[in-house]
């Protein structure tokens, strides 16, 4: 713990502090957790189904009528913004003959219409129209009740610009699940920071890349700052490893923080900051892997989210979005600053590709099956593995009980 830092959470540890004696020798995920298609599906239906996972951005479905299809670990889903401005998620499959309902993001208007026989569902998923079901020009038939054939919904909720899903439907409410993280960052960035985030949907507001690796390796790489001097030599000049601290946030997240984030770096107009950010900690920035698949970064003048979309056991799409403390940040006068941030972070995340993909290639080796957690530098990564293994065990037990 930094002696002057008012954060008193026991979650914060220094990489230069005492070693955790419990770590060496403790269990890590085996290779097959990164390479086996069967394990990938099992993981979806056990570990991930029982928690809240990131599915998309709130801005993907910005307006009532917006639809956005997502393949989530092999499951065809669709996000929808309904007429009451509420996010909804459905299994993206027509109740008639199983046609994929929505193939492309866009505006469905008031009706989501199946491309095959044109059945129409309203934005709450209710089946409303069945053209020609009783013969040409006859749109009803005896014994068929539309009310019995609504789309199958998936529990969802929004926070920090992300649409989260809970496939099992029985996790605690999202706000309750996120409480340890939100309360920590409300102390830092103000009590309503998460309500005021403004997504930048402009040209410098997002980034996307595809990794030839299992998504968990991207989580693990994001957890630790150990690789900073070697993989991010430029970043290390202005945010060096020795200014970082480890973070573990039970039970849902881990990562790292720095005390030297430089808000004035570069000569462009500084961005508006979170109005209620703790003035004693303006240079604090924190980077947390919110399990299982959301990477978050918070600084006094910007916020970002990376969604790790697991497209195959060995392929992950990273979707990044920047969010700001105020709508004013999207103004033209801050364009250069937003562009600089975008460029700098794109370089950092591109630098991580080779190590994340290299770890994936390493998972083909019978000479490695879990590896080591060092007692100082790998504390946050170890925390992620413990979370994963404990949930796998819980859910496996639940499945057979
Ligand atoms: S499969 Fe959708 S209307 Fe027939
Ligand atoms: Fe990195």
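Sequence proposed for the structure above (401 residues):
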């Amino acid at each position: 713990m930094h002696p002057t830092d008012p954060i008193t959470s026991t979650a914060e540890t220094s990489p230069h502090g005492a070693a955790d004696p419990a770590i060496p020798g403790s269990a890590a995920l085996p290779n097959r957790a990164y390479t086996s298609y069967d394990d990938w599906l099992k993981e979806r239906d056990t570990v991930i189904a029982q928690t809240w996972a990131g599915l998309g951005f709130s801005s993907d479905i910005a307006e009532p009528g917006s639809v956005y299809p997502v393949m989530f670990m092999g499951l065809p889903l669709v996000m929808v913004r309904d007429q009451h401005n509420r996010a909804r998620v459905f299994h993206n499959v027509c109740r008639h003959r199983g046609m994929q309902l929505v193939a492309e993001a866009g505006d469905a208007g008031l009706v989501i219409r199946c491309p095959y026989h044109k059945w129409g569902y309203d934005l709450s998923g209710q089946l409303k129209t069945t053209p020609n079901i009783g013969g040409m020009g006859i749109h009803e038939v005896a014994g068929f009740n539309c009310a019995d054939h609504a789309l199958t919904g998936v529990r969802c909720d929004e926070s920090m610009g992300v649409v989260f899903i809970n496939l099992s439907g029985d996790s605690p409410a999202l706000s309750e699940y996120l409480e340890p993280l939100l309360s920590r960052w409300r102390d830092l960035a103000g009590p309503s920071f998460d309500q005021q985030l403004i997504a930048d949907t402009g040209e410098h507001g997002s980034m996307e890349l595809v990794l030839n690796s299992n998504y968990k390796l991207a989580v693990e790489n994001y957890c630790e700052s150990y690789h900073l001097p070697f993989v991010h030599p430029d970043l290390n000049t202005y945010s060096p490893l020795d200014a970082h601290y480890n973070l573990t946030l039970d039970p849902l997240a881990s990562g790292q923080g720095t005390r030297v984030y430089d808000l004035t770096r570069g000569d462009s107009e500084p961005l508006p900051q979170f109005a209620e950010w703790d003035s004693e900690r303006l240079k604090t920035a924190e980077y947390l892997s919110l399990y299982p698949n959301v990477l978050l970064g918070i600084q006094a003048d910007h916020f970002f989210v990376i969604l790790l979309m697991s497209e195959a056991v060995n392929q992950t799409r990273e979707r990044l979005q920047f969010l700001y403390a105020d709508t004013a940040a999207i103004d033209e006068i801050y364009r250069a600053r937003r562009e600089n941030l975008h460029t700098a972070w794109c370089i950092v995340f591109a630098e991580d590709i080779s190590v994340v993909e290299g770890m994936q290639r390493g998972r083909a080796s019978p000479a490695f099956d879990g590896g080591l957690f060092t007692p100082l530098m790998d504390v946050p990564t170890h925390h992620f593995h413990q979370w994963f293994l404990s949930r796998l065990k819980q859910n496996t037990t639940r499945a057979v009980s």
